[in-house]
Amino acid sequence: MRNNKFTKLAEETDYHLRAIRQILRQPVEAEFSRGGLTGPQRSVMHFLVNSGGLSLKELSRQVGLAHSTVSGIVDRLETQGLVERRTNETDRRVTRIVPSKLVRDYVRNTLPSLTVNPLTDALRRASPGERIAIAEGLRILLRVLQGK
Description:
Blueprint: H1 2-35, H2 39-51, E1 54-55, H3 56-63, H4 67-79, E2 83-87, E3 95-99, H5 101-109, H6 111-125, H7 128-145
Antiparallel strand pairs: 1-3, 2-3
């Protein structure tokens, strides 16, 4: 019986965390949908932005698509000015695909506000006591998840 109590609490916590993540992702998702990228293009961009650049072979392995498919995706992204191909200075046979300056600037300057602003607005609406409770609850949850 006691185990069931913890299972129910874990399920409720998981539900709330998922709902929170979904709400916080809405502005980012809306921005991405305005960009008109397909799912595979978004996946390629995700790996490129998070890695800082990959070879076509590495990128194909990361996204789990055929080399020729990823090459076509990169061609289209390059035409849109979202990625650049850079030849290695020491080995001209090696080319890395990197996010363009436009994308790097967007990720550095615009994206953080899309993810932080909804949370900032919500915390602003909370009472001082609620803000303290939220922060403390999250600190405790992180600590116990880390096993400390």
